[in-house]
Write a structure and sequence with these properties.
about 325 residues, 15 strands
């Protein structure tokens, strides 16, 4: 689940607690090429305000029109199914790619209790399944795993929600600032650990949250999981290697450290001497990033995040690694 979905649900909760009526739309099925994948959500407030998206824009316009022309009834069924793009003409009208079809649930949110519970569990880094009974509108929340996917059999929608992806940066230097800014645009929750107080000045709270303690303590304290990436960027082996010793034995999906090929080999040798297993050391990404000829801090940040996002999305990496120089 990304912050777009989280913001949709946060808005639903806020609006309902303020006494406003809300309709929640979820993409449950697509055929052909559709603008949004199953699971995408949009919330529509009683005055026509929307948050989220289910298409490129035209479907959203029609949903607002349904509200204003009375097609959404306050005393209608709790959940309805709506389909767009059945014909080529309709697909063209609603901005869907030729042949694309989109099916949505139109769900009147009466009790926001499940929304509050789901958000709380996601903030606690749990993966949650929301089961929606189409006939009754009843919602049940259950634990789920990272391998679960959205399912819909016409009677029950089972959608999977989970915590945001996180990026822990070891070091608060110049490069980390570029990485943090780009990572937030890519919807990562950014965490920073740097016990060197001289480097903390100038960081704005919105760019990331500082984690106190030494780097190895930070890796443990954030309860590193499969949705966490960790990158050591201090250029100080006393700090970087401290973090890596713990991170490489954690569940983090990505662990990397800044440095040239030569220094990366030295780092691996040092980690082995410190007792880290060959299997754990093999997980280390270094030099970090995809090869884009990067030299400046901004280019290195772009290269790093391209690699992290590719791995997050299950893309096999075939590009050469960059020849990073020590700076």
């Amino acid at each position: 689940m990304d912050s777009v979905d989280l913001n949709v649900l946060r808005s639903v909760l806020q609006w309902r607690r303020a006494g406003q009526r809300v309709v929640l739309y979820s993409v449950v099925q697509t055929w052909g090429t559709a603008p949004r994948a199953p699971g995408a959500m949009l919330a529509l407030r009683e005055d026509g305000v929307v948050i989220g998206s289910v298409s490129g824009g035209c479907v959203e316009d029609d949903l607002i029109a349904r509200l204003h022309d009375g097609r959404i009834s306050a005393d209608g069924p709790p959940v309805q199914l709506i389909t767009y793009g059945v014909t080529r003409e309709e697909a063209a009208r609603f901005g869907l790619p030729c042949g694309g079809t989109l099916r949505l649930t139109e769900e009147r949110v009466s009790d926001p209790g499940w929304v509050a519970e789901l958000l709380t569990r996601c903030e606690a880094h749990e993966i949650v399944a929301r089961e929606l009974d189409i006939a009754t509108g009843k919602v049940i929340l259950q634990p789920a795993s990272k391998t679960d996917a959205l399912t819909f059999d016409g009677k029950t929608l089972r959608a999977i929600y989970g915590p945001r992806w996180r990026l822990l940066l070891i070091g608060a230097g110049q490069l980390s600032r570029y990485v943090a800014e780009m990572a937030r645009l890519l919807d990562f929750e950014v965490l920073i650990c740097d016990p060197r107080t001289e480097f903390v000045y100038g960081w704005e709270e919105q760019h990331g949250r500082f984690v106190s303690g030494m780097p190895d303590e930070a890796v443990l304290n954030i309860q590193t999981d499969e949705r966490t990436a960790i990158v050591a960027l201090t250029h100080d082996p006393r700090l970087d290697d401290m973090a890596l010793l713990t991170a490489l034995d954690s569940k983090a999906f990505y662990v990397g450290a800044l440095g040239s090929r030569v220094n990366s080999r030295k780092r691996r040798d040092n980690l082995a001497q410190l007792g880290l297993s060959d299997q754990a050391i093999e997980r280390l990404h270094g030099p970090i990033g995809l090869h884009i000829g990067s030299h400046s801090p901004a280019e290195i940040a772009l290269s790093l995040l391209a690699e992290i996002v590719a791995i997050k999305n299950g893309v096999e990496l075939k590009q050469m690694k960059p020849l990073q120089e020590e700076v």
